[in-house]
Structure formats: C-alpha cells, structure tokens
Write a structure and sequence with these properties.
This is Cyclopropane-fatty-acyl-phospholipid synthase. By secondary structure, the chain is an alpha/beta fold. 41% of the residues lie in helices and 23% in strands. The radius of gyration is 18 Å and the shape is globular.
Length: 229
C-alpha cells in the first residue's frame, strides 16, 4: 500500500513491475488502483504462478529478461530485484528505466542495502546458499549509477522494521517445519541453513548494519515531489 501511495497512481496508468516474482504486487496494483500492469520475471515457475494469480485482471505477466523491454510506462516499480542486478549492471539498468519511463513518471525501488565499504562475510554465505550471485547495493552506488538520469525525490529507510519482519519469517519457518521437512532430501542441513540465514540477518538489521530502502526517482518533476509515510 505504501509503495502504491508513493507512486501516486491514477486509473488507467501503465505500470511496469521488474522482477514481479509470484505476482502479488501486480495483483494488488490492478485490483486496488485500476492500473494496467506488466510484470516481468526470469522464472518460468514464477511466471506461471503469477499468471494464474492475476487471471482476469488487467495484468500481463512475461517470462522475459528486463533488458529486452522497449516500450513506455507511466510508473516503474522494482521491489526486491535490484539485489539481483549486480553493481556492474546498475548503470545499464537505470538507463533502461530512464528510457522506458515517461517524462512525468515516477520510479520506485525497494531494496536491501548497506553502508559498508567491504563485502560483509554474510554475503559470502548468501552467495553460496541463498541468493546465488546476489549483491545488496552500497548506499554510494545508487547515486553514482543514476547520475544525469534521475533525481532522487525521496529515500526512506525501514532498516529497523525489517528486524521484526525477519523474526516473523523465522518463527513461521520453525513453527511449520514439521509439516514441510519431508519435502527435502537433506532436511537437517536445509533447516540449519535457513535458520542461520534468518538469524544472521536479524542481527545485521538490529545492529543497523543492513538497511531496507524505498527510493523514489523521477526525471525531475516540475514543482517537486511530495512523499508520504
């Protein structure tokens, strides 16, 4: 809901969701804000689930590389995808967003991030077990990548709140583990990996070493942008 309010949506707008996952945000946008949504994902399983979820709505789900997008949108949203783009690709990613966003459009990114100059040890664990080739952006990388492309209208930090989110995920995982453990070839190892993942990140967010950002970008709206909380 907060993402949608920050996007300042109006019925009939065309919205691009890059990295749409299982289609939850696409569905929410179409149902509650009456906009036309295009969601793209590289996962064929995710695309199939999203298509089923959004059946009958003004939503088009594509199993497509975002770099192949070549059309215009009033709004762009990226929630939990920038972590999979990679620092070497940030500039080309933002150039594509600039090319596809209307001149009076709004672009919102939600991403985990950090302000460390060195690679945290936790990222080595993540790369091996959780998010292969993933990388959370440093707070200095985004401004550099958008130079001469976008104006930063708002940068909202939810880092302290994400501690609570991760603990809720951890508790749900532990509570439901007896029901799902039979699905895994090596259940004990799987359980330890994911419990460790949740708890090291609870620690990182609680210590304020990791952050969760919502960043609003425009091409420079005349009169400025008024954000919401």
């Amino acid at each position: 809901e907060l993402i949608c309010r920050k996007l300042k949506l109006k019925p009939g707008m065309r919205v691009l969701d890059i990295g749409c996952g299982w289609g939850g945000l696409c569905e929410f946008l179409a149902v509650n804000y009456k906009v036309d949504v295009v969601g793209v994902t590289l996962s064929s399983e995710g695309a199939a689930a999203a298509k089923e979820r959004c059946k009958g709505l003004s939503v088009e789900i594509r199993c497509q590389d975002y770099r192949e997008i070549n059309e215009g949108f009033d709004r762009i949203v990226v929630a939990g995808f920038l972590e999979h783009v990679g620092p070497k690709n940030y500039r080309s990613f933002f150039k594509l967003a600039h090319r596809t966003l209307s001149d009076d459009g709004i672009f919102l990114i939600q991403t985990i991030g950090h302000d460390n100059d060195c690679v945290p040890q936790s990222e080595l664990f993540l790369d091996k077990y959780i998010f292969r080739n993933g990388a959370a952006p440093n707070h200095k990388e985004i401004p550099k990548a958008i130079e001469n492309l976008f104006c930063i209208e708002d940068w909202h930090n939810f880092g302290a709140d994400y501690d609570l989110t991760l603990m809720a995920w951890h508790d749900n995982f532990v509570k439901n583990w007896p029901k799902i453990s039979h699905n895994y070839e090596n259940p004990n190892a799987f359980f330890r990996v994911w419990k460790y993942y949740f708890l090291i990140f609870v620690g990182a967010f609680r210590a304020r070493k990791a952050q969760l950002w919502q960043i609003v970008l425009t091409k420079g709206l005349p009169g400025g942008y008024i954000s919401v909380r």
